[in-house]
Specification:
By secondary structure, the protein is mainly alpha-helical. The chain has 2 domains: about 1-110, Rna Polymerase Sigma Factor, Chain: A (Orthogonal Bundle); about 110-185, Winged helix-like DNA-binding domain superfamily/Winged helix DNA-binding domain (Arc Repressor Mutant, subunit A, Orthogonal Bundle), CATH 1.10.10. Helices cover about 80% and strands about 0% of the residues. The protein contains 8 helices and no strands. It has helices spanning about 10-20, 20-45, 45-60, 75-110, 110-130, 135-145, 150-155, 160-180.
Amino acid sequence: MRKNSHNDEELLEQIQLHRDAAAFTTLYERYWEKLLTIAYLRLQSSADAQEVVQEVFLDIWKRAGNISLEHSFHTYISAALKYKILTLLAKRKTEQARSTLLVRDEADASTEQWLSYQQLRHELEQTVQALPEKCRLVFRLSREKGMSEKQIAKTLNISIKTVEAHISKALKTLRTSLQHLHTFFLW
């Protein structure tokens, strides 16, 4: 039986059980163009659209063993694309806000303020580095990579409660360590 005659779920199963590259290629060929079109319409950037589609397929290949379909593969891959697009849009918005703040801050920031900011960043990084390894990893995945607690739990193969405990511990440590700076943090 040819791979093209298999349904999506059968192909995914072949990837999960046998790391079947031919099955993966078949799924890729079935979906890449549709996904690229949707991504381009949402992102208005060919490069960004290609990047998110590539990430979707890379995640499928890397995490095939952990994929559990609640609905069809089509629904799964559509949701995966939507998540990647939303993540990229949020990242763009954050970068734009940071850029705007930096421009505004540069215009009216004194040398003393800049040094205070550098000190804060340094102390923050030192405090994060002093966290226990697993706690530090969970914190960085949450705050720097923007991953949800569920994603972190799945990635690290730990419970969501453990993820919550690590994040809570990290934030408590950071607040205690940095409370003398009288700076407002948005957690």
